[in-house]
Amino acid sequence: MTMSTHLPTRAFGKTGMEITRLGIGAWAMGGNAWGPQDDAESAAAIRHAVDLGINWIDTAAAYGVGHSEEVIGQTLRDLPADKRPLVFTKGGVIRDANGQNPRRLAERNSLRTELENSLRRLGVDVIDLYQIHWPATDVPLEDYWATMLKFKEEGKVRHVGMSNHDAEQLARAEAMGRVETLQPPFSMIKREAAAEILPWCAANGTGTICYSPMQAGLLTGSFTRERAAALTQDDWRRTSPEFTTNLDRNLALADALRPIAEARGVSMGTLALAWVLAWPGLTAAIVGARSPAQVDGWIDAATFELTATDMNEIAAAIEATGAGEGPTKP
Hints:
By secondary structure, the chain is an alpha/beta fold. The protein has eleven helices and twelve strands. The protein starts with 8 loop residues before the first strand and ends in a 9-residue tail after the last helix.
């Protein structure tokens, strides 16, 4: 087994937590939405990432209708106490038993039931970070944020945050009680967070972990039109604009990035991750892993940094290909 490695960490806002620049994303470990997944491979990926020094993992109750949390819970039980990563999870998205028909529900009793189920599946007495997954459709923001703050007051969770909320919503919540963390989408393709959300988080001391920094595989350099056509029916990417109407521009960007990555001697994935980590206001990035080999494909980004010249060349590639929307460099 690989010995644990010390990786650089960053202060996660004002939470007091110090987290590695990369964390494990566990959506695919739920076993749906990304095609079939082997639980043993998921557990091996978590153990390998922890051995390499990663100290946090992000999941949600909605991933595999709780199955992702179950896999993480079992893996945590098998790890020595001093090697267990911080665990961040999310509530507020309810799916049916087949993992379909997501609803954004965050009424007080519904959210409490979700939290209790997450605690049970993860096998912990307290969750390090509990996040509201999406803006709810059943109750106002003020209602569900009051519930989240109550969970922290009760000691059920150590810290509370939001995911997929905009700057106006963050400000409304902050007026009631600290928004300690935020989880927005952010990548070279999906750059909207850089316009208002990241500056808001930086100004308010809110820790920020982005998801889809490699845009669900598009920026790894290994994704092709053939792979897009071969995605299974239960893979959410089959209906995503980034993999359909915008696919040609996004693949053109990946092609344009390849010589930049080669010149720096890193993988395309590492380049994509280092790019998001270079933005002020962003603490760290969530990276999916379905196997130990996938972890090896991105772990270098935990210590790699881009130069100003690299950032300018990447901005030029983005602008030339017309991929995505939003600012192209800090």
